[in-house]
Design a protein that fits this description.
Elements: H1 2-20, H2 24-27, H3 37-48, H4 54-63, H5 68-80, H6 83-103
């Protein structure tokens, strides 16, 4: 039952996102005018939550704690600064970390 519901939610998210990126005559037709933004946000959150892999973070913590630092920087940087700056800061930190390990 859950897999069926998850596929329906994913299909609905695809329909919403494809309609939002549709040409202006279709997008401006008012299809989403009466749907509250909170409802659209909850649909997207419901579709994204099963994609989060908590076990990978725990495995990174067990193997090498410093490998978790670029992950945390990218996550919180993307959350607070935006996607571009979050990924850029994590890449920069990872390059500095690799240079540090090489110079050792």
């Amino acid at each position: 039952m859950f897999i069926w519901a998850h596929r329906k939610v994913a299909g609905l998210v695809f329909e919403v996102s494809s309609a939002q990126s549709a040409p202006p005559p279709i997008r401006n037709a008012g299809l989403f005018y009466y749907i509250p933004q909170a409802a659209l946000g909850s649909i997207i959150i419901t579709a994204v939550v099963p994609m989060v892999d908590y076990e990978a973070v725990i495995d990174m913590w067990r193997v090498n704690k410093l490998d978790l630092l670029p992950f945390a920087v990218s996550f919180f940087g993307s959350l607070f600064l935006g996607i571009e700056y979050g990924v850029l800061s994590a890449v920069g930190l990872n390059i500095l970390y690799l240079l540090f390990l090489t110079a050792r």
